[in-house]
Design goal:
Elements lengths: L27 E5 L3 H11 L2 E8 L4 E7 L6 E7 L14 E6 L2 H10 L4 E3 L6 E5 L5 E6 L20
Parallel strand pairs: 1-4, 5-8
Antiparallel strand pairs: 2-3, 3-4, 6-7, 7-8
Length: 161
Amino acid sequence: MAEKSVSSYLPSDTYNSLPKDGDLTFLHTMLRVNDLDATMDFFKALGLQETRRKESEKGKFTLVFMASAPGAPEIELTYNWGGEDFAPPSRSMGHLAYATDHIYALCESLQAKGIVINRPPRDGKMAFVKSPDGISVELLQKGEPLEAKEPWASMENIGSW
């Protein structure tokens, strides 16, 4: 019997026990990471939680799955033991996107944790940040945009996103 997963989105064995129902089921997006702890801290600052983990002595890797809430689609952080230097993702990767109840409050919280806001939410509806591994993350305001306010309205972009 499969172990219960923290995420109700999928069983802990991921796809092995899914019923054959004719549907295509989204599983996760995998991101390679250089520093598992730093990357997990980044995604925890966004509000994600670890849903499950797999470690392989033979394969020398750790997989950590994270989601915004139980039952939400997951990201898979893949860390190869012994380190692996790789270039930041290409522009073809694009970005991950998350919607938030209050974009200004989230950006203030992220800044307080040392996370750079690459594209500030000047318009009250959209911002971008980057993970420690250079993965762009778009933050979107749920519902109507918030009224523009300082310091966000006049903040310049920092780097790329």
